[in-house]
Amino acid sequence: LTHPHIAQLLDAGIAPDGTRYLVLEYVQGERIDHSCDARRLDLPSRLNLLLQLCDAVAFAHANLVVHRDLKPANVLVTDSGHVKLLDFGVAKLLGDVPDELDLTRQGSAGLTPEYAAPEQITGGTVTIATDVYALGVLTFVLLSGQRPYDAPRGNAAQLARAIAEAEPRRLGAAELTSTF
Fold this sequence. Notes:
alpha+beta; two-stranded antiparallel ribbon; 5 helices
């Protein structure tokens, strides 16, 4: 995926012990949430970064790739203010792709529960909607400083139940972050 807002894949393969690996370009930057807060970015600046991220994700989707792990740690902001999406280690190819050609197998795919879509939590079918959901959660966090669910931090079972069963809080019901 060659795109200005996606870290360039340099190499991929299987190590002698059978471990799959990806080698990406080195990106000097700070994770998006930390960057926004440290620079005390205003709403338009935060939205600009989110639009860059959406452009990168749309490009991946146009190339039949679902990231499956969109979260602040996988989105860096460079010193020049450009977003770089990285870590496609659990990405999935869409379409009529045999399992052995998939980038990762569904059963072994990692996820970050705080940003996971309901279908990831319940073991459902992953589609581009999975990434769109994660973009919504990321947007909620960047604009409010809060998560869209009321589950206590550190309790994975309650968080999974909230994601699978509860309606997320609307952004308008959350207090906007005080950093802008």
